[in-house]
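Input structure tokens:
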């Protein structure tokens, strides 16, 4: 998935996500990302493995991936040519104690930190194979169209789309969740980064500080 096709862009607009089973990075570059994840996991201390928030603040090598053309070329057709990095996260469920994440909108975590959330997209990259058995991500298609900040709620799991994929892009207002991991093996680790179109006012910068990565003059 070097770029999104017109059909994928339309699907994202209507359903709130796009996915791919193709690798995003070349094997050598991807192996470097895997090594960085293992380093961060070893340094986490008492934290759970799904609490490795904004790791690019601790390891600048991650910016090689978060600022890469491979990523930004996927994001640009969805939010436009001016792109700012909003957040990053390593997620990996611990065996037996890997927590379930109830249905939610990612935008709810950022409530009060930004004035608009309709132009924020997250790129979710599986570092190992992601399956239903190891607690993969789940979404409820088209729920981004409702907007607003949802509370944690139960939902009809028959509507689920499971993220058995190498790569996801999804809207900040889309309802998503993760299942509990009742297994001895760890869940699939992933790197999630969120990008925003500058223009909305950033109300707080104590947690997420947007950094402009790409800016292009658009002819009129």
């Amino acid at each position: 998935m070097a770029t999104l096709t017109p059909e994928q862009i339309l699907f994202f607009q209507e359903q709130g996500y796009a996915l791919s089973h193709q690798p995003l990075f070349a094997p050598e570059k991807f192996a470097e990302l895997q090594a960085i994840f293992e380093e961060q996991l070893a340094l986490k201390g008492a934290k759970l493995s799904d609490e490795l928030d904004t790791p690019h603040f601790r390891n600048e090598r991650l910016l090689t991936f978060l600022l890469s053309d491979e990523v930004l070329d996927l994001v640009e057709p969805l939010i436009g040519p001016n792109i700012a990095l909003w957040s990053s996260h390593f997620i990996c469920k611990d065996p037996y104690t890997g927590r379930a994440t109830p249905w939610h909108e990612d935008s709810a975590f950022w409530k009060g930190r930004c004035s608009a959330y309709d132009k924020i997209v997250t790129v979710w990259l599986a570092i190992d194979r992601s399956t239903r058995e190891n607690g993969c991500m789940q979404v409820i298609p088209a729920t981004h169209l409702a907007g607003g900040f949802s509370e944690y709620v139960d939902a009809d799991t028959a509507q689920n789309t499971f993220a058995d994929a190498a790569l996801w892009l999804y809207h900040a207002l889309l309802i998503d969740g993760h299942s509990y991991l009742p297994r001895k093996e760890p869940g699939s680790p992933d790197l999630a980064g969120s990008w925003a179109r500058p223009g909305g006012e950033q109300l707080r910068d104590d947690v997420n500080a947007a950094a402009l990565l790409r800016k292009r003059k658009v002819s009129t």
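Confidence is low (pLDDT under 50) at residues 183-187, 200-204. The longest strand covers residues 83-91.
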